[in-house]
């Protein structure tokens, strides 16, 4: 069996369609798009595409039947993948991008998975995770899967030597936070929902430059999972909290074209730096540089390493309380 440094799981993948407008979105009116794109997507697929651009062996595990447009799109970009068959066509999601970087995303429902399909997808992941360095469990769960599905996968992965990253939201994130993982990547709203913090207060504090509430919530989550927490804060950058400290990073100057997939690129940037054996602050630097580079691209294009502006990512060590 071929081995991969990064194996990603996308339980609810999508074909991502992006429309770029030349002006602001006007509800209820007819507008023409200045450009359009269609790309294979879903959070884990996005992570694997960034890894592939960096020349790192990666495999995307996802549901999908032969001939599905999403799988055809994966073939077009040359991304290695393995699938379990499902009964319907993988969903298409729509992104509307305005010139100032405002992004509106409309996600369609996913293809339901029955018990046998879910078991097959989980077994497929475990088979390939056995020889992987990192496994990333990414995105929402499709209809048919219980909220604790990622949590049960964490238990099965615990017996393998790979490190595990989790990037999800809502009830699946809350359930996964009860398990052990090496990295959790929430945004500020997800960090609030999993720790019980006030989301408005976290967002307001981060906007004002007060990162202490972010660090406190991330420290709580890190203590639960036993691993690092990479809290992405959009244009404000990100905060990394581990058992040994906390750091903040602000991104380089970026003209934003689409924020869709930027968080996925941040996750990939962290893991790529970890594979290189870099320090925790430098993993954060890589994560923020990748996220900024992704935001500067149209659609959900994966940024290549030559687009990174690592020199203008500003790192600051923060006080951590347990």
From TrEMBL:
Molecular-function annotations in GO: kinase activity
PROSITE patterns: PFKB_KINASES_2 (PS00584)
Superkingdom of origin: Bacteria
Pfam families: PfkB (PF00294)
Enzyme class, broadest EC rank: transferase
Leader sequence residues: none
EC number(s) reported in the record: 2.7.1.-
Carbohydrate kinase PfkB domain location: 17-306
Gene3D superfamilies in the record: 3.40.1190.20
Sorted UniProt keywords: ATP-binding, Kinase, Nucleotide-binding, Transferase
Family per similarity comment: Belongs to the carbohydrate kinase PfkB family.
NCBIfam families on file: 1-PFK
The protein's name: Hexose kinase
Organism of provenance: Gordonia pseudamarae
